[in-house]
Amino acid sequence: MSGKPLMIVKSRAAAAPSDLTRTDWIEYDPDDIDPFREKVEQAIIEVQDLVSYEEMLLDVALDAPAMDCAVAFERAQKAFLLSGDLGLVEKVESIRDRVAGARNIEQVADLERLHGEVSMFAKQGRACAVG
User: Fold this and answer.
1) Residues 46-72: pLDDT tens digits?
2) 3-class DSSP state of 27
3) I need a surface site. Which of 2, 5, 35, 114 has the fewest CB within 10 A?
């Protein structure tokens, strides 16, 4: 699921699979649609709140004098995958640029890997926004 939240919808009459007995779901009853609509709207608001929270944590990471680039990238990834906001790709590109400067100081495999992941995510994010 790429870290994305999952909303499970089932009919009132359907029994939940045994592996979902401890999972929350939204019941759909065509005869009583208002509770379903309210719960879906609530779930969407919770996702929007999660995006805002991840963006806030990303901004804190970007403003740090000694940024943990991997953590900042994780925050950007989560927020982008939930929102598709192109502004987040620009923030990923700033992380990429910061990693690019640091990776030349020493040959550290983690920085090389991180630079590759961040660069690829930025390219894919730009492609999603265009296409």
Assistant:
1) 989 999 999 999 999 888 888 888 889
2) strand
3) 2
Query: What is the dihedral sign for C-alpha 42, 44, 47, 53?
Result: negative
Q: Is-above-0.85 flag for pTM? A: no
Tell me how far CA of residue 28 lies from CA of 21, 24, 32, in angstroms: 17, 13, 8
Helix (H, G, I), strand (E, B) or coil at 62: helix
Q: Say how far apart CA 45 and CA 50 lie, in whole Å.
A: 9
If you ran DSSP here, which 8-state letter would residue 15 be given?
P
> CA angle 77-114-98, nearest 5°?
85
CB 73 within 8 A of CB 95: yes
Taking the C-alpha atoms of residue 98 and residue 82, their distance in angstroms, rounded to an integer, is: 24
Closest CA to 31 of 12, 44, 16, 48: 12
Strands (E), the chain: 9-11, 26-28
Contact criterion met (CB below 8 Å) for 122 and 131: no
User: Cα 68 from chain centroid?
Assistant: 18
